[in-house]
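R.M. (postdoc): so does anyone remember the format we settled on? I'll just put the structure tokens first.
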């Protein structure tokens, strides 16, 4: 049986189609649905092109980087390979999906989100008598734009330096680049939670030892965590972001040494606090501070497209100083759904 993927003509221009990624362009020319019930089912259009040119990117039998450049057409696949592996690195141990309520895809650099700031009266569940007016929830666009930031890394390596490297080994460097980019986006998210997105909506800040938080300043106690948890009504503090030192302090608390909590941590590496909140440790958090949030309502991530690589340079083997970037920003949804506690 002849497959159409073997006859596609690949060229640089496939990266430049507005509103479409390289893979989406490939899928338009060679739809995956055409391969249902065949040995190629389960592969997307890009993976079928790897098969076409017999390029192995994983495992001990992975090819060398130069295999991509054996023909002018196979070289067109290299930027997409780089983009995919960087994306894998961004997704490994990525905290962002655990703290964002929604992700909005946006084509541009300045984004205007919506907001709804209910008063105490709006939050009350009042009985509505027959014929009376229903309580209202007002949704408005934010006054100020949410700025998106381009974060990235420069790949500094000559083609001669990497051409004989195995793709599996080269992928490790690319995944690390992805990890660094994800870390920068996380720092942006933490900054927006704490200081707001430019619309006068910083998180409420509390300090241990200062009412309504009990305890002794400079020392985190379980009682102080309970007082902090109590500030979230009507939201639920279901996620806590902490730096390493604060995580250690919490693990040493008697309340966190419940056998079931310990078994879950040892078995999965995930630690749920006795408060029912998921603990997320990250070095992006400032020392001596923790953030509590209701991840279902606190933060919106705005993404301007996918991972971007300078495909012209990569295809032409001008790997040295090729930029790999990702553009994202963050908007506060419900300000009271995220709060800061200083120890």
């Amino acid at each position: 049986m002849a497959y159409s993927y073997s006859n596609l003509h690949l060229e640089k221009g496939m990266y430049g189609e507005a509103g479409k990624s390289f893979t989406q362009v490939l899928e338009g020319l060679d739809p995956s649905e055409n391969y249902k019930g065949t040995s190629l089912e389960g592969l997307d259009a890009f993976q079928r092109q790897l098969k076409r040119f017999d390029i192995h990117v994983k495992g001990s039998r992975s090819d060398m980087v130069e295999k991509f450049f054996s023909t002018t057409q196979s070289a067109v696949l290299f930027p997409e390979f780089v983009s995919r592996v960087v994306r894998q690195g961004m997704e490994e141990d990525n905290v962002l999906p655990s703290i964002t309520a929604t992700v909005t895809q946006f084509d541009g650099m300045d984004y205007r989100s919506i907001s709804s700031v209910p008063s105490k009266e709006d939050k009350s569940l009042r009985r509505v008598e027959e014929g009376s007016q229903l309580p209202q929830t007002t949704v408005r666009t934010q006054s100020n734009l949410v700025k998106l930031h381009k974060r990235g890394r420069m790949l500094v390596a000559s083609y001669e330096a990497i051409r004989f490297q195995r793709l599996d080994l080269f992928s490790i460097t690319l995944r690390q680049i992805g990890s660094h980019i994800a870390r920068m986006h996380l720092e942006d998210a933490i900054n927006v939670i704490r200081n707001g997105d430019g619309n006068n909506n910083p998180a409420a800040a509390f300090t241990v030892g200062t009412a309504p938080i009990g305890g002794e300043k400079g020392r985190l106690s379980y009682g102080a965590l309970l007082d902090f948890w109590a500030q979230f009504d009507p939201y639920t503090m279901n996620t806590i972001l902490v730096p390493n030192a604060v995580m250690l302090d919490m693990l040493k608390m008697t309340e966190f040494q419940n056998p079931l909590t310990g078994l879950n941590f040892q078995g999965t590496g995930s630690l749920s606090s006795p408060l029912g909140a998921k603990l997320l440790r990250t070095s992006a958090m400032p020392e001596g501070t923790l953030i509590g949030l209701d991840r279902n309502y606190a933060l919106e991530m705005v993404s301007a497209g996918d991972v971007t690589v300078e495909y012209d340079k990569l295809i032409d083997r001008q790997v040295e100083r090729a930029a790999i970037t990702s553009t994202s920003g963050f908007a506060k949804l419900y300000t009271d759904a995220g709060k800061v506690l200083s120890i």
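R.M.: ...and that's the designed sequence above, right after the tokens. Also worth knowing: The chain has eleven helices and 14 strands. The CA atoms of residues 196 and 202 lie 4 Å apart.
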